[in-house]
């Protein structure tokens, strides 16, 4: 298998999911790689004017114009050489994306990088692409796209990176970590990225649906009633119990640390809009299964009781059925 790092030419990167997260990483990667974005609803505006990124970390009013294509077939036919990386930053809707990205994935060559929330999201890629390295990542980066082509990024950027499965000895997770670092991003390599994935999903199961259901930022939710923050902590602790059943132990202090990421912003009253709240506001489908449903399934499989998570799951599903006007 050829490695982009072994050649003197720049790696070729295709972004699938040119939304909030993907655009910031493609912008960084454009400093060290040849980049192309698959755009859908923002195709016309990005093709004409490129993206504008306003970032508390990387600077304001950054104009970024990558090569743009409408789909992965066009990406494959317009590139004379195979893509070294396909970076998947779409929302996670189980069993949909592998077929869509297939035209741009060269067997035995293209590394598939998943920059997405959720748990248990990787196996469908292993099944569809048995000869391609898979990288699983966890991202901490509050970011939104509003209007199309304009990205607003807050003051956190962290990408935790590992091979999938964790037992793989592929060099690609290390190579990608170095690539992001050389581009000015913050990337950390882990032998067991699943531990970090569980730690992140503790936060997402609680905040994403709770903020979406209450149409509140995280800070607004905490300020909405005296015990609102305790409720969020209790949800997080339920998820930690599920993680423990799978061998990932998090103490109450660890869980409190995840909650504190939001609590520190209470004083400034500057809450963030988790991605599910953004989805509700924009009428987009939410990642209910990947983030909440998969945790619940795993809880049931091990007999772990999590009543709050189950309640949130039913409510979030009902909300999703109402806000999502289209197939995705
Ligand atoms: N936003 C945030 O603050 C954070 C998000 N995350 C996670 O990162 C991942 C990405 O989230 P985010 O960037 O917010 O998502 P966005 O909704 O902003 O972007 C997803 C992009 O994927 C595109 N897309 C989906 N399906 C297709 C398709 N078939 N063809 C072409 N394009 C497609 C969408 O296009 P279209 O506009 O046409 O629908 C959209 O541009 C998620 O897993 C999320 O949970 C993690 C941390 C923070
Ligand atoms: C809560 C947050 C912003 C953390 O990065 C996130 O993961 C999301 O919005 O989905």
UniProtKB/TrEMBL annotation:
GO cellular component entries: cytoplasm
Keywords for this protein: Membrane, NADP, Oxidoreductase, Transmembrane, Transmembrane helix
Catalytic activity: (R)-pantoate + NADP(+) = 2-dehydropantoate + NADPH + H(+)
A molecular-function term among this protein's GO annotations: 2-dehydropantoate 2-reductase activity
Enzyme Commission code: 1.1.1.169
Gene Ontology biological-process annotations: pantothenate biosynthetic process
InterPro entries attached to this UniProt entry: 6-PGluconate_DH-like_C_sf (IPR008927), 6PGD_dom2 (IPR013328), ApbA (IPR003710), KPA_reductase (IPR013752), KPR-Related (IPR051402), KPR_N (IPR013332), NAD(P)-bd_dom_sf (IPR036291)
Transmembrane regions listed in the UniProt entry: 12-30
Role, per record: Catalyzes the NADPH-dependent reduction of ketopantoate into pantoic acid.
Name of the molecule in the record: 2-dehydropantoate 2-reductase
Native species: Aaosphaeria arxii CBS 175.79
């Amino acid at each position: 298998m050829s490695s982009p790092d072994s050649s003197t030419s720049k790696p070729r990167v295709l972004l699938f999911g040119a939304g909030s997260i993907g655009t910031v990483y493609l912008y960084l990667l454009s400093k060290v790689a040849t980049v192309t974005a698959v755009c859908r609803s923002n195709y016309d505006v990005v093709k004409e004017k490129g993206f504008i990124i306003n970032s508390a970390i990387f600077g304001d009013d950054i104009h970024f114009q990558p090569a743009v294509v409408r789909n992965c077939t066009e990406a494959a036919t317009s590139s004379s050489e195979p893509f070294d990386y396909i970076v998947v930053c779409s929302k996670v809707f189980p069993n949909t994306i592998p077929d869509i990205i297939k035209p741009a994935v060269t067997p035995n060559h293209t590394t598939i990088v998943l920059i997405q929330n959720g748990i248990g999201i990787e196996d469908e890629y292993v099944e569809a692409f048995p000869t391609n390295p898979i990288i699983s990542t966890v991202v901490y980066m509050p970011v939104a796209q509003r209007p199309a082509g304009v990205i607003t990024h807050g003051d956190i950027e962290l990408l935790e990176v590992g091979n999938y499965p964790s037992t793989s000895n592929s060099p690609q997770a290390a190579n990608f970590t170095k690539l992001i670092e050389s581009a000015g991003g913050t990337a950390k390599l882990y032998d067991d990225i699943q531990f970090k994935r569980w730690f992140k999903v503790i936060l997402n199961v609680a905040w994403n649906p709770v903020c979406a259901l209450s149409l509140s930022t995280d800070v607004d939710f905490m300020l909405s009633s005296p015990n609102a923050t305790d409720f969020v902590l209790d949800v997080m602790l339920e998820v930690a119990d599920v993680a423990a059943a799978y061998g990932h132990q998090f103490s109450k202090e660890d869980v409190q640390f995840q909650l504190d990421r939001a609590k520190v912003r209470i004083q400034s009253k500057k809450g963030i809009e988790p991605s599910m709240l953004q989805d509700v506001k924009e009428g987009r489908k939410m990642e209910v299964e990947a983030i909440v449903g998969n945790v619940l399934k795993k809880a049931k499989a091990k007999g772990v009781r999590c009543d709050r998570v189950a309640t949130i799951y039913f409510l979030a599903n009902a909300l999703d059925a109402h806000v999502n006007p289209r197939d995705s």
